[in-house]
Amino acid sequence: MQVVDHVRLNEAGDKLVILDQTQLPNRMEYRELETAEEMYEAVKKLRVRGAPCIGIFAGFAMYVLALRFDRSSYPAFAQQFRDAAAHLNASRPTAVNLSWALRRMERVVTERKGVAPAELLPLLRAEAQAILDEDIAMCTAISEHGLSLLKEGDCVLTHCNAGPIATSKYGTAIGPLILGAERGMKLKAFSDETRPLLQGARLTSWELDRAGVDVTLICDNMASMVMKNGWVQFCFVGCDRVAANGDTANKIGTSGVAILAKHYGIPFYVLGPTSTIDLSCATGEDIKIELREPDEIREMWYREPMAPETVKCFNPAFDVTDHSLISGIITEKGICRAPYEKSLAALF
Questions:
Q1: Which one, of 154, 100, 109, 155, lies nearest residue 131 by Cα?
Q2: Residues of the chain with CATH 3.40.50.10470
Q3: Please, are residues 131 and 207 in contact by the beta-carbon 8 Å criterion?
Q4: Do residues 83 and 70 touch, judged by C-beta distance below 8 A?
Q5: Given 154, 240, 247, 278, which residue is catalytic?
Q6: Beta strand 268-271 with 248-251: parallel, antiparallel or unpaired?
Q7: Is 54 helix (H, G, I), strand (E, B) or coil?
Q8: What's the mean pLDDT in 174-201?
Q9: Strand order of the sheet with strand 241-243?
């Protein structure tokens, strides 16, 4: 397995280095970030993306920013920390891992009132590293649980990207495929291209191909045909937020895949760490859906615009898959099944 080092500190430990995912698959470019605006922009522009990866990023980002805060007094340092966390949290509202990781980093500061800021810095760095280490362990466990469903020759359809660069190590949704390939299993995959930002084409197909998985790229509107032809045995997708009732927010188009899978009798599984489960969110109706720039539909990837400038565009980044369409939610602690109010709550 070829591991991609996508979020890390630089050698000096004072800047954050990310793999710029907007440049894949043609170029592997890394960026060094040190200011709050650079970090906000990196998340907003999807240079770093994927719910667990954003959480990892947030941990190290807050440590790097904290190195530059006023250390003359605890109150000044704590206020700057809170302000910076609130600013970064506004970059993408749907993925719960961002706010989860920021709250976790903020607790390092707030639970040690009066401690000298210089003494907080190594604790912040350790917490950021713990978020990464825990995610690696979670992704490995999720991949094991997902692989337990598959047998030699099975084919999995996936939507968007929930692989190593969106998480860590194996990833979530495609983790079972990568782990299976590592163990010599012959598995296949169909990767939806995932309009309008093409994460499936640019990222998932790239990751699976590098891992030695037999992957076929399809346009989003081809999923029905490959399901109807009997070429798909499972659908595995990631998640950005799971509500208490099992409704799940993921990349736009996921709910359509779930509806098709239900029609064709194909098991549809959601894979993600327990950090994406938000029990304070009762149903999918309570999940705020990010709306993105119209030009992502109209002109991104094209030499010339593909629609008149006067035409309105609706560009939600996510949709919500109803819990009734989900066969199971695979976490690091095992596979949850309906009724999700009980099985998800039992994880905590």
A1: 100
A2: 145-345
A3: no
A4: no
A5: 240
A6: unpaired
A7: helix
A8: 97
A9: 277-278, 241-243, 248-251, 318-321
What is the tally of helices (H) and strands (E) in the chain? 12, 14
7-139 adopts what CATH topology?
A: Four Helix Bundle (Hemerythrin (Met), subunit A) (1.20.120)
| Cβ partners under 8 Å of residue 348, min gap 6 | 274, 277, 279
Distance CA 159, CA 128 (A): 29
pLDDT value for 196: 96
DSSP for residue 111 = T
Phi-psi category of residue 322: left, alpha or beta, with phi > 0 → left and psi -120 to 50 → alpha: beta
- pTM summary value: 0.90
The span from the CA of 327 to the CA of 269, in Å, is 6
Alpha-carbon 228 to chain mean position: 29
Residue 278 designated active-site:
no
Residues in the chain: 348
* Res 80 pLDDT > 90: yes
First CA to last CA distance, the chain: 32
| Cβ neighbours around 201 below 10 Å, total | 20
Of the pLDDT bands very low, low, confident and very high (cuts 50, 70, 90), residue 5 is confident
User: Over 90: is that where the pLDDT of 64 sits?
Assistant: yes
Contact 285, 162 (CB under 8 A): no
Residue 227 has phi, psi (to 5 degrees) of -70, -45
203, 163 Cβ separation under 8 angstroms: yes
**Beta 188-192 vs 30-33: how paired, if at all?**
unpaired
Domain with CATH 1.20.120.420 in the chain: 7-139
Q: Is residue 325 over pLDDT 70?
A: yes
- Domain range 145-345, CATH class: alpha beta
The encoded tokens of residue 202 equal 């640019």
Chain segment 211-258, per-residue pLDDT in tens? 999 999 999 999 999 999 999 999 999 999 999 999 999 999 999 999
Look up residue 31 and give its DSSP letter: E
> What CA–CA distance (Å, rounded) separates 32 from 8?
10
Cα separation values, 245 from 83, 252, 315, Å = 32, 20, 26
Cβ atoms 41, 11 nearer than 8 A = no
